[in-house]
Amino acid sequence: MIEDLRKYQAELEIQNKALRYSQQEAEGASERFATLFSSVPLALMVVDEGGLVLASNAMALRLFQPLESDPPLNFLLPFVGPEHTDEVAVAFSSARQEGTAEVNEVQFFAGTKGTFTGDLHIARIENPSDDLAHFSCAIIDQGPLLTQRHALLESAAVLRQRNEDLLLSENRMAAIINSSLDAILCIDDKQLITVFNPAATALFECPVEQAFGTSLGRFLPDVEKALSSGNVSAQAMLGEFTATTLSGKQIYVEISVSLERRLRTRTPFRADDPNAIALRGQPGGQGSITTIFARDLTSKKLAEAQRIALETQLRESQKMQAMGTMAGGIAHDFNNILSAILGNVDLAKQDTPRGSHALVSLEEIDKAGRRARDLVRQILTFSRNEPPKRVPLQLKEVIQETQRLVRVAIPPGVDLRVSISEGCPLVLADATQVEQALLNLCTNAILAVGQHKGSVTIELGTTELSLPFNDRIGVPPGRYVTLRVRDTGSGMAQETIERIFEPFFTTRQVGQGTGLGLAVVHGIMQTHQGGIDVQSAPGQGSVFTLYFPATGAKPLPTVEPEPVQVVEGRGKHVMYVDDDQALVFLVNRVLTRKGFKVTVFSDPHEAEAALRSQPESFDLLVTDYNMPGYSGLDLLRDAKAIRADLPVALASGYVTPEIEQQALEQGASALIYKPNDVNELCETVQRLISHHDA
């Protein structure tokens, strides 16, 4: 039994050693836990489910009770901000059920130092000996982290704003580029196209997809060479260049460039955005970017060409005006000379017996004088700017009348052909002027054929004119009647065609042409509001086409001409006033032979004095219009003041609508065009006296 007791005692000693060892280990662990609990850099507390703080480490005391005068940390909830109290209570309840819980960014009171923000982590501690649950609470101060977090958030907001501004700027730049009227191209350091706006697409006639990655020289080879030379500044206006479209057409553009050099490359922003890709071209790094602005000069070139054409027309108009001034200046004296020549020749022919050799000479003088008269009339027709007296007219009748005149003088080797389309509309025209224009064209065509065999064709038809042809010949679009003269002659070079309408310009030998034929045709077409077109080439003949505006007006009824009466003066007294002595002498002889009593004056003042002294002794007053110092209108006005019923005729070699209107307003009975045949003058005098007597 003693032995058993000894064994039992030994076992107790062993157990006692083990118990002491366990106690030592527990005490060591407790010390280590207390050391860790007190020195860990977290605020740690042991709290029961009633909120009582059973234990707290130094960090917890520093956070919740930084000063000795601050309230002690006995209960946790009084230190929780009111907006988080319920949330913390719910977290404790959840930890009791689930074992753990946490609440982020809880506001805690820190005594006199105010508040701080921390994350609360709760873990339930197993406590079988006590009915109240215990929790370990760790509070992580988020102050420094929140400061960094707010800084990061602010930086992120600034970065987002910058990205949005950059995107907005790029979108705005894309809108500007896409809406620009100038073609904009960007190239990289290899001179490959990375930007190609819609204006460039239209200008170079190339889709955007085909332009990207293409060399600049494909469209602007000269610009590519200029940029390759390295002599171009960062901002430069290079001037005008020739460009090539995708189809190979040559166009003119004005080029300016802007160079941007980068220290480091970058890829396009938002490379997955198709709009950004379209703006920047193919994705990839770019060491330098050159922006090229190309302005289409097509409109400018067209305007320049139109300006040159207008200047040419102005010069031609000035030439015409100078010619008209010259013609008006010489018409009076030249007409007086021709009137005296033709009148005296007619009187001489009347005094020369038949069969006389002198009669042949007088006939030749008469022919030469009439040719001179026709030349003066051509000059006056060319120089007049007033519209002719146009009436609804069928040009077929003018052609038929003119061809009879042409066939008389046509050489045997020239075949005259006439082609008239049926149903041509009427035109507003002066038949005499149209006949003169057609006769001039036919005469030129016959001279162009010369002594060789050939043909001259007169064609009448209709056509519709539209842009751009009608603008080239200077008429509005619409329906026109065409009068065409075609020949198989020698033709003309382009430099000749440019001058054929100039006054006195001719390619004929001396004595074969005056150089006024086509100038007269040009003037006639202008007064008829029509146009003229010329097509010719050396050795291929010429085609002159006159365009007359068609009209829907009806033709005027025909008026039977008055029968020609035998002139018998029967002693009627005529006063004739002209500052040209030759005409005074001629008219005196002519009217005296016809039985008139004639009183002539070369000084209008003497004529006015004679009329004032014997107003009833005169039956008719015929006065020249253009007299220096005292014109025919002045004499007409004074004569009507002296005797209102006296018939007065005004004579002039240049009768314009203004002169006619002034004469009629002053009471003139008739206007006489000089030079006329002496018989026509006598008939006019007798008609005026007869009408006055009636």
UniProtKB/TrEMBL annotation:
<keyword id="KW-0808">Transferase</keyword>
<feature type="modified residue" description="4-aspartylphosphate">
    <location>
        <position position="624"/>
    </location>
</feature>
<keyword id="KW-0418">Kinase</keyword>
<feature type="domain" description="Histidine kinase">
    <location>
        <begin position="329"/>
        <end position="552"/>
    </location>
</feature>
<dbReference type="InterPro" id="IPR005467">
    <property type="entry name" value="His_kinase_dom"/>
</dbReference>
<protein>
    <recommendedName>
        <fullName>histidine kinase</fullName>
        <ecNumber>2.7.13.3</ecNumber>
    </recommendedName>
</protein>
<keyword id="KW-0547">Nucleotide-binding</keyword>
<keyword id="KW-0067">ATP-binding</keyword>
<dbReference type="Pfam" id="PF00072">
    <property type="entry name" value="Response_reg"/>
</dbReference>
<keyword id="KW-0597">Phosphoprotein</keyword>
<dbReference type="InterPro" id="IPR004358">
    <property type="entry name" value="Sig_transdc_His_kin-like_C"/>
</dbReference>
<dbReference type="InterPro" id="IPR013767">
    <property type="entry name" value="PAS_fold"/>
</dbReference>
<dbReference type="InterPro" id="IPR036890">
    <property type="entry name" value="HATPase_C_sf"/>
</dbReference>
<dbReference type="InterPro" id="IPR000014">
    <property type="entry name" value="PAS"/>
</dbReference>
<dbReference type="Pfam" id="PF00512">
    <property type="entry name" value="HisKA"/>
</dbReference>
<dbReference type="Pfam" id="PF02518">
    <property type="entry name" value="HATPase_c"/>
</dbReference>
<dbReference type="InterPro" id="IPR036097">
    <property type="entry name" value="HisK_dim/P_sf"/>
</dbReference>
<dbReference type="Pfam" id="PF00989">
    <property type="entry name" value="PAS"/>
</dbReference>
<keyword id="KW-0902">Two-component regulatory system</keyword>
<dbReference type="Pfam" id="PF13188">
    <property type="entry name" value="PAS_8"/>
</dbReference>
<dbReference type="InterPro" id="IPR003661">
    <property type="entry name" value="HisK_dim/P_dom"/>
</dbReference>
<dbReference type="InterPro" id="IPR001789">
    <property type="entry name" value="Sig_transdc_resp-reg_receiver"/>
</dbReference>
<feature type="domain" description="Response regulatory">
    <location>
        <begin position="573"/>
        <end position="689"/>
    </location>
</feature>
<dbReference type="InterPro" id="IPR003594">
    <property type="entry name" value="HATPase_dom"/>
</dbReference>
<dbReference type="GO" id="GO:0005524">
    <property type="term" value="F:ATP binding"/>
</dbReference>
<dbReference type="InterPro" id="IPR035965">
    <property type="entry name" value="PAS-like_dom_sf"/>
</dbReference>
<dbReference type="InterPro" id="IPR011006">
    <property type="entry name" value="CheY-like_superfamily"/>
</dbReference>
